[in-house]
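batch job 7 of whatever, protein = DUF1343 domain-containing protein
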Amino acid sequence: MIQLGIETLLRDQIALLKGKRVGLLTNMTGLDSRLCPTIDLLMAQPDIHLSALFGPEHGVRGDGQEGLPIESYTDPLTHLPVYSLYGNTRKPSKAMLKNIDCIVIDLQDIGVRYYTFISTMSLVMEACMEESKEVVVLDRPNPVNGLNREGNILDKSLSSFVGMHPLPNRHGLTIGELSLLYKHEFGINCSLTVVPMKRWSRTMYFRETGLCWVQPSPNATGEAMAVLYPGMCLIEGTTLSEGRGTTRPFEVIGAPYMNGSEIADKFNQLGLKGVLARPTSFVPYYSKYKGKLCRGIQIHITDISKVQSYKIGLYTLGLVAEMYPSEFSFLGNGNRCTFNLLAGNTKIRQKILENNFDDFFEQCQAECDQFSEHVLPYLLY
């Protein structure tokens, strides 16, 4: 089993926080390998004064759905103030940081640019830089390994909370490595310490870590979802259901107008590595097509090491656009529509509508290769 950053901190580096007033940015994934919450572990340390909690999207306790704002409150278990960073305030204010010397970050990222936890981390680092506060990041594994990178680099003009910095869709970094990249490449020059893991290697998928999967968000149901998410999340920006409101979000897709058998056949004819599709039907209990029968496909992983989710997502959208040109569309208008913000590029929509990706994936691979070279100084493992 790997050793997590929180465990390294408690065993070897607790002096980092000794005598300090600590704010903790965390959620239900902030646990050690025995599932003890980081909140409790820090509160039990006599030389650390845990002063406040900070919550990302979904909240400190993970009870908020995606996209729903969360208010600040007093935690009934610890009686600590909980400052929500997913509501009217997304960047800690001067008042929130007034009685804090250091913010500790312990969050399980999912390895994908759209995941808002890494945007929250960026804003926390920025606030701490401005207020001369320390940041300590407790590292955790990238659940979809630290080698593979997929997708296009975000166009800076499309920077948003679902893609703040020029990263590929699947970035191949741990949250600690990302924080180093933010500091040294994106001008967020805060006082930063990353507490590393031990025994984690870049080739590992989550199943190889020995850790229990704890959902970092309500729809992050497991390793299969995480592996498919880099490409399948793009479906959020279209009239297709990405499976929210089912037990298999980002693994099933569909709409009332689709024929699951036809699209499953066409999908499987593409010969995409590591996956097969089968026709399925589902009724979402919330989100798109709530309460309506949808037909579509479920994507099954046959070889996790060969899955290229970005290609899967775009080829799937291209097939649907070709088969259902009257029914399929993108949500919103203008350059900063939902799809473009997720895609980080304004030209991908047209490629989907034409179902033509000639040379595009080669261009993406070149961007990922360049990114891989660029981040070498920040790799910890």
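notes: The radius of gyration is 21 Å.
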